[in-house]
Amino acid sequence: GINAEYGDLIMMEVNAKNEKSDNKAIMVFVLLTILFTVVMSLVSINRKSAVMVPGLDARTWKVNDTIDLWVNKIVSDETQLPYRYHDLPVCKPSKNERESESLGEKILGDTIEKSTYRLRVGVNESCLTLCEKVLNAKNIENLKSKIIDEYRIIWLLDRLPAAYIVGRPEHNKSVVGFPLGDKKLNDKDKEAIILFNHHDITVQYNRVGFDWQIIFFAVNPRSIQRSGNSDCSSGSPIDLNSKLDNINVTWTYSVYWIETPTPWTQRWEKYLTVDGFSNVHWFSILNSLMIVLFLSGMVAMILMRTLHADLRRYNNKDNEDPDETGWKLVYGDVFRPPTRRMLLSALVGSGVQVGGMSMVVMAFAVLGFLSPANRGGLLTAILFMFVWMSVFGGYFSTRVYKNLGGENWKKNAICTIFFFPGIIFGVFFVLSWFLWSSHASTGVSSGTFISLVALWFCISGPLSYFSSYFAWGKAVPIFFNTVKSLYAIL
Q: What pLDDT, on the 0 to 100 scale, is given for residue 33?
């Protein structure tokens, strides 16, 4: 009785001290939330795509306007290692011009570079010669390895990626990116590795008055071995297995403009419903979900039956057995502090940080701020929101730590700042080192690493430490059972 009264007096004193700072705490967190929202809306939408929220703005062109075609990278579902398009022995401009890239684009390995392809709005052109190349043995081996690994090429036109029609055109199935080449058997039943050197570019447009809007962009590659002044309608394919060195390749392309009634606001629907190489195993996903739900239901039914049986026995007035049985035997262990309270607090704070980041990013995506035209916008928003959500991570970590009877809040704050982000950054660094050694485009440069470290130490760390200091003076300690558990003794 005396201990209970003493504990009540301490709780009343602590609550009286914290009551004065409640209004101030609410105001601070409301202001921080508003600040996060404003900053993220400015950061996640960079200057070159701020007007690309679907349905709000459209880029228009006039007839005979020249449009530059941009190249990005080559990707494969077999190796998961993307490379720069201009690392291939293809036609390259004399001056390398690149678009400014966001932090998310750099991490994803996007390298947007201007190509030598030029398109004139509304003008159909056939068999335009881009350049001629003589492939040496090293170039041939490079192209053969990429074709065997089924690499696809990503081009960009008016921020739209190049699509490749799969099957019949009326089925309206396409994938992002078109193949670099193909493997098949030649006339002698030997494997032939075919290089696609001609590209039929089809651009679908919609006219609004005298303005043209690009709706869809597809590329159909072909392999044509030209001889003299022959056209691109027919020709034998280029087999990279036919010679070991000095293969002459002429790169050509054709452009076709087709009008479509699809409005500009719906031009991304074809890209968001692509099919082909990246199939989603829906049956496996549904099967796993059904198994998880079935097993969870069985466990819940067993627990409910056990708890109901115990409650009926405890509520029975005729039960004179004073011994406690069943789940009530663990009440002494439930109200004991864990042995590694600091680690638990850091994990709880990191969980709150990740959960808050996920909810805010999903809210931005639902509102349309994360447009698919904004390449890397989703990853950029995730990174910056994770940094800003460190305020809540540090706050809740310290609250849990003090409630569990912790005393060194500074050490707990440092653990929260470095434990979970340090593991993620370490894994990211090791993977990036392997990617960089493989010359993949996703190999992060030193400048990107410096940017990530600056976000971590200059923004995330101070915010987490400040919120930990604020939470330490507000948290209410909880009294625990000081008797050691029988399981801990054993």
A: 55
